[in-house]
Amino acid sequence: MTATEERASPGVGRVLVVDDDEGLARFIVEVLTDAGHHAEAVSSAALARRRVEATGYDVVITDLRMPGESGLDLIAWLRRYDPRVAVLAVTAYGSLETAVQAMRLGAADYIPKPFEPAALLLAVDKSLRAGAMRSEIERLRVEADARYGFDAMVARSAVMRELIALARRVADSASAVLIQGPSGAGKEMMARAIHQASRRRARPYVEVDCGAIPDALLEAELFGEALGVPGTPQHKVRPGRLQEADGGTVLLDEVDALPLPVQIKLLRVLRDREVTPVGSTQRVAVDLRVIACSNLDLRSAVAAGAFREDLYFLLNVIEMAIPPLADRVDDIPALAERFLETFNARTGRRVTGFSPAAALLLTSYGWPGNVRELQNAVERAVVVGVGPEVAPDDLPPALRQPRGHDFLDEAAVRGMTISELEVAYARRVLIKNGGNKKKTARLLGIDRRTLYRWLGEREESAESDEG
Ligand SMILES: Nc1ncnc2c1ncn2[C@@H]1O[C@H](COP(=O)(O)OP(=O)(O)OP(=O)(O)O)[C@@H](O)[C@H]1O
Ligand SMILES: [Mg+2]
Questions:
Q1: Which of 254, 372, 376 best tests ligand 1's pocket when mutated (most atoms within 8 Å of CB)?
Q2: Model pTM score
Q3: What is the distance in A from the centroid of ligand 2 to the CA of 398?
Q4: Which fold has domain 150-319?
Q5: Which ligand is nearest to the CA of 252?
Q6: Residues of 205-223 as b/e, b for ≥16 C-beta within 10 angstroms?
Q7: Intervals of CATH 3.40.50.2300 along the chain
Q8: Residues 330-374: pLDDT tens digits?
Q9: CATH of 14-141, one of 3.30.1050.10, 3.40.50.2000, 3.40.50.620, 3.40.50.2300
Q10: Ligand 1 lining (C-beta closer than 6 Å)
């Protein structure tokens, strides 16, 4: 069996027996082989290391006292070399101290001599099962990282790269994070990635949509509630969402929607680190990492008296503002490509990319629904399109319609600068003229170099491009 072959499933294991007592080693191998395991034996720690380096084992059963290198040294080496290999130590009768030492070095268990074959098999099965569980947990973790971690987030623009760098730095702390940004910008995704990168990731991640729960139910939902008459058998306390998140992360989505009385109660919970369920006098300690999201500027909510300032400061230890997608045009092509991959995989289509005209529409549109709207637009294109790549006609009509009269209004609302306006206007004219840059530059009364600069393209291409 070679190291490249898959590790055997639990039940059948690959076992290396290390013992200078050849009779005993042969006996162990026999017992294991009869039970269906693949077992072989070597007579020293040095030989064992060579075998482990050459092939893969699930379990190593080692004697502790051997001439030359001891079993304890072998255990220490194995833990470093491949922590996935389970080690069982065979100990002489009455040498509990070395057994303890072996366990400290990372042995999964010890088998005191003399032993019954059944005890040996039981110990091997137990460590195989534990190993299988560990690999399953590891597999789930890798899968969750790919799906929910920072690696799942597309970030090309400088502002998103900085935000993710900040998020990575603070992920492992227990500090509260406030994520603000417009709808569909990626707030929830950021929150999930922070949890996923923290040491709390194996603990619960609980989302509370503060805006979606009716006020009357919100307190019980968050803090739990006492049910039934105290002192009767029906009496019990139903834990709330905060308690469910104990040890993990709680996401308070649309935190601005919390009514003021609930804000006061939440403030106390976060300050005292304990919850008191509604109708109960019992306090329950909770250990929480809080991430709050808001579409509104919470600071203005504070100024307007709709949000408690003390709670605001408690939530806003680390502030992250995710800009609207239109303010980070650099992210659009990469996001579109990512979504194209996703929907190709989901629908079985093989759309290769975006036509230049379609790509231009994507980067020129204002995306009021932000990343979510882009995601939907790409989904639509994959579903309705028939060509090898996405054409302008495959995109939602909104993207193809010039927004006309409201453009300047919108620019004023968004507080665009003159240079942002120049760029946005130039893109618009470019689309109108089918991507013809020469004509666009002429219409705008600027030279082509300036147009390339505005569009963020390299100047050299101005020489080669005659379009
Ligand atoms: N940087 C990104 N990379 C990849 N996908 C993203 C990114 N940002 C957002 N998305 C995707 O866009 C969609 C909307 O993101 P999300 O739900 O996180 O937005 P939100 O800010 O919480 O919106 P809302 O305020 O409406 O709840 C999700 O499907 C998410 O996976
Ligand atoms: Mg959200």
A1: 372
A2: 0.67
A3: 23
A4: Rossmann fold (3.40.50)
A5: 2
A6: bbbbebeebeeeebbbbbb
A7: 14-141
A8: 999 999 999 999 999 999 999 999 999 999 999 989 999 999 999
A9: 3.40.50.2300
A10: 153-155, 181, 183-189, 295, 335, 338, 371-372, 375
Check if the beta carbon of residue 375 is closer than 8 Å to that of residue 186.
Answer: no
pLDDT of 315 > 50? The answer is yes
Edge-to-edge strands, sheet with 14-18 = 38-42, 14-18, 59-63, 86-91, 109-112
- Among 144, 188, 191, smallest CA distance to 167 is for 191
Give the number of whichever ligand sits closest to the CA of residue 188.
1
Nearest Cα residue to atom 5 of ligand 1: 153
Phi and psi, residue 206, nearest 5°:
-115, 125
Instruction: For residue 358, give both structure tokens.
Output: 């379609």
Distance CA(85)–CA(105), nearest Å, equals: 13
Measured CA angle at 235 (ends 230, 238), to 5 deg: 120
Alpha-carbon distance 26 to 39, whole Å? 10
